[in-house]
Amino acid sequence: MGKQFSIYKGLQKPLMYKGFQGKYIGWGITSLVMGLVLGGLIGSLTDMVFGGILTISTITGGLYFTSQQQKKGLHNKTRNLGVFLPPTELKHYHHAKAEKNTL
User: Fold this and answer.
1) pLDDT at position 53, please?
2) 23-45 helix and 48-72 helix, angle to the nearest 10 degrees
Protein backbone atom coordinates (compact mmCIF):
# COMPACT_ATOMS: atom_id res chain seq x y z
CA MET A 1 0.00 0.00 0.00
CA GLY A 2 1.38 3.42 -0.99
CA LYS A 3 1.78 6.50 1.10
CA GLN A 4 -1.28 8.65 1.63
CA PHE A 5 -1.06 12.41 1.50
CA SER A 6 -3.76 14.85 2.48
CA ILE A 7 -4.82 17.18 -0.29
CA TYR A 8 -5.29 20.85 0.55
CA LYS A 9 -8.60 21.95 -0.93
CA GLY A 10 -8.60 25.57 0.22
CA LEU A 11 -10.41 27.14 3.08
CA GLN A 12 -13.87 26.34 1.71
CA LYS A 13 -15.04 29.66 3.16
CA PRO A 14 -15.84 32.90 1.36
CA LEU A 15 -13.19 35.61 1.34
CA MET A 16 -14.09 38.03 4.13
CA TYR A 17 -12.34 41.00 5.76
CA LYS A 18 -13.87 43.32 8.37
CA GLY A 19 -17.39 42.33 7.37
CA PHE A 20 -16.90 42.84 3.62
CA GLN A 21 -17.01 39.85 1.27
CA GLY A 22 -15.51 39.20 -2.14
CA LYS A 23 -15.47 42.13 -4.52
CA TYR A 24 -16.73 44.49 -1.82
CA ILE A 25 -13.32 44.35 -0.12
CA GLY A 26 -11.95 46.14 -3.18
CA TRP A 27 -14.81 48.63 -3.09
CA GLY A 28 -14.04 49.42 0.55
CA ILE A 29 -10.32 49.89 -0.11
CA THR A 30 -11.15 52.11 -3.09
CA SER A 31 -13.39 54.33 -0.98
CA LEU A 32 -10.62 54.65 1.62
CA VAL A 33 -7.99 55.59 -0.96
CA MET A 34 -10.29 57.96 -2.83
CA GLY A 35 -11.24 59.68 0.44
CA LEU A 36 -7.61 60.18 1.39
CA VAL A 37 -6.57 61.43 -2.07
CA LEU A 38 -9.56 63.73 -2.49
CA GLY A 39 -9.31 65.08 1.07
CA GLY A 40 -5.56 65.63 0.77
CA LEU A 41 -5.90 67.39 -2.56
CA ILE A 42 -8.73 69.65 -1.44
CA GLY A 43 -6.99 70.25 1.91
CA SER A 44 -3.81 71.37 0.21
CA LEU A 45 -5.63 73.63 -2.26
CA THR A 46 -8.13 75.25 0.12
CA ASP A 47 -8.30 74.67 3.88
CA MET A 48 -6.98 71.78 5.97
CA VAL A 49 -10.13 71.63 8.10
CA PHE A 50 -12.34 71.41 5.00
CA GLY A 51 -10.03 68.72 3.57
CA GLY A 52 -10.24 66.70 6.80
CA ILE A 53 -14.03 66.94 6.91
CA LEU A 54 -14.18 65.93 3.23
CA THR A 55 -11.87 62.97 3.89
CA ILE A 56 -13.97 61.66 6.76
CA SER A 57 -17.27 62.16 4.94
CA THR A 58 -16.01 60.53 1.72
CA ILE A 59 -14.68 57.48 3.54
CA THR A 60 -17.83 57.14 5.66
CA GLY A 61 -20.13 57.58 2.67
CA GLY A 62 -18.13 55.14 0.54
CA LEU A 63 -18.11 52.44 3.20
CA TYR A 64 -21.83 52.94 3.86
CA PHE A 65 -22.61 52.65 0.13
CA THR A 66 -20.45 49.52 -0.09
CA SER A 67 -22.22 47.88 2.85
CA GLN A 68 -25.64 48.68 1.35
CA GLN A 69 -24.63 47.16 -1.99
CA GLN A 70 -23.33 44.06 -0.24
CA LYS A 71 -26.70 43.52 1.41
CA LYS A 72 -28.28 43.27 -2.04
CA GLY A 73 -26.03 40.33 -2.91
CA LEU A 74 -22.88 39.62 -4.82
CA HIS A 75 -24.57 39.80 -8.20
CA ASN A 76 -27.05 42.44 -9.28
CA LYS A 77 -30.45 40.82 -9.32
CA THR A 78 -33.83 42.19 -10.26
CA ARG A 79 -36.28 41.81 -7.43
CA ASN A 80 -39.77 41.59 -8.91
CA LEU A 81 -42.64 41.75 -6.46
CA GLY A 82 -46.07 40.34 -7.14
CA VAL A 83 -47.68 37.30 -8.69
CA PHE A 84 -46.82 36.40 -12.26
CA LEU A 85 -49.07 34.12 -14.31
CA PRO A 86 -47.61 32.50 -17.41
CA PRO A 87 -49.79 32.50 -20.53
CA THR A 88 -52.00 29.45 -20.83
CA GLU A 89 -52.39 29.46 -24.61
CA LEU A 90 -49.11 28.66 -26.27
CA LYS A 91 -48.66 29.09 -30.00
CA HIS A 92 -47.41 26.09 -31.91
CA TYR A 93 -44.62 26.90 -34.27
CA HIS A 94 -43.85 24.46 -37.09
CA HIS A 95 -40.17 24.46 -37.77
CA ALA A 96 -40.30 21.85 -40.53
CA LYS A 97 -40.41 22.94 -44.14
CA ALA A 98 -43.86 23.25 -45.62
CA GLU A 99 -44.78 20.38 -47.87
CA LYS A 100 -45.82 21.06 -51.45
CA ASN A 101 -49.26 19.91 -52.51
CA THR A 102 -48.78 17.80 -55.60
CA LEU A 103 -51.40 15.87 -57.48
Assistant:
1) 92
2) 160
